[in-house]
Amino acid sequence: MILLQLILFCALFTLMVKFGVGNNALNGLYFYPEPVQEKVYKLGLSDRVTTAKKRKRFMTAFFTVMAAALILIIRVWNGVRSFWPAYWQALLFLEVMNWYDGIVIDRLWVGHSRFWIIPGTEEIPFVQTWPQVLRKRVILTLIWIAGAAIVAGIIILLR
Predict the structure, then answer these.
(1) Are 65 and 14 in contact (CB under 8 A)?
(2) Residue-level pLDDT, tens digit, the chain, 159 residues
(3) Is 157 exposed, middle or buried (0-12, 13-18, 19+ CB in 10 A)?
């Protein structure tokens, strides 16, 4: 059952990203490294204010939906009502999401899809290298150790 839930959670993650960018990679410009963003601004394809607004709108919706889904899975679907089982399940889901993002989203989808190439920025590398992915994912692994405790605490408060 947990495997199915992890697959559905990662599918939701992917759908949220796709929904956030729609049919135009410029809608997700905030995902790109600074050199790409600067080039896009110079080309007049977007501006800092628009990018910041889109980032805030997406991140708010993304974290709200993903947190709600995680809490629903653990509390409602799995019926967990105590801290440590909630913590370990939250940690599993957050870590799988973390590594899924780095490997499947960043390296595979972004790295192998023409969709993510913004015209006029083709010469600027925007796909994270393996060392960058690993460094970021290790840091996030540590952050999610605390994040799982927050999720478990919320689940306990919902008794």
Answers:
(1) no
(2) 999 999 999 999 999 999 999 999 999 999 999 999 999 999 999 999 999 999 999 999 999 999 999 999 999 999 999 999 999 999 999 999 999 999 999 999 999 999 999 999 999 999 999 999 999 999 999 999 999 999 999 999 997
(3) exposed
- Give the separation between CA 62 and CA 60, rounded to whole angstroms: 6
Alpha-carbon gap, residue 36 to 121, rounded angstroms? 6
Q: Structure tokens of 158?
A: 């919902």
Residue among 67, 74, 102, 69 at smallest CA distance from 88: 74
Confidence (pTM): 0.94
Rounded Cα–Cα distance for residues 153 and 82 (Å): 9
30's CB contacts (< 8 A; 6+ apart) are: 37, 51, 52, 54, 55, 58
Cα dihedral 12, 16, 22, 24 sign: negative
In whole angstroms, what is the distance from residue 58 CA to residue 50 CA? 12
CB 65 within 8 A of CB 118: no
